[in-house]
Amino acid sequence: MISFGIKDIIDILLVAALLFYIYRTMKESGALNIFVGVFAFIVAWVVVDKLLDMKLLGTIMDRIIDSGIFILIIIFQDQIKRFLTELGSKKGWKSIAKLWHSGDGEKVRKKWVMPIVYACMSLSKSKTGALIVIKNKMPLEDYEHSGDMIKAEVNNRLLENIFFKNSPLHDGAVIIDNGKIMAAGCILPVSHDTNLPKYLGLRHRSALGISQATDAIAVVVSEETGNISYAYRGEMHLKLSSTDLEHALSKLID
Prior knowledge:
By secondary structure, this protein is an alpha+beta fold. It has helices at about 5-30, 30-50, 55-65, 70-75, 75-90, 90-125, 140-145, 155-160, 200-215, 240-250; strands at about 130-135, 150-155, 175, 180-185, 215-220, 230, 235-240. The chain has ten helices and seven strands. About 30% of the residues are buried.
């Protein structure tokens, strides 16, 4: 007789949660098709080797499966790094701590969220292109060191001057960490997502790319239209008002 208890229910729920997290991470990073392909190969291997008992094809697939763990580590190294970083960030404990200090945290956050919003509004009016990356939990040091280090308090005039068309740093991204402009002129990974509208340029693709590789929020001001957008967890949100941007940053910044 097969016994089924609380432990088995917890086991199933944990596996379901893990599979959902993997699915969400792959979707956000643009690697969902690869993940589906790997899953389909594993299903095919089970059918060929275990159910149909095809010796030759089964042996070939066995060899691929044996070395598959190393192949998966190479293919999904960015996603594995992201998973381990988020696992070590103690997100749950921080969320609990926010319940006790929610009022103070909101006041501190507002001090440097609004200068970003004001800068984006001004840049939007003058149709000056901008790309601002706001760090959450995952480290961005590698991207910071690709540009020029600044380490200055967030200031809307400073942001506007950085992205002024004659500025040597205006083509790169600004990275902000906990109310400080850490670096400017930074180089970001470019997304190759084919679902992104073709009229969006390199800034938008870079914003989407950094949001797929990390949990950062990337705000973009279009040089062609002046529209404000932001990318977060592999999704692009277009044509925002200043109020939309303020609400989004206040909600998403940890």
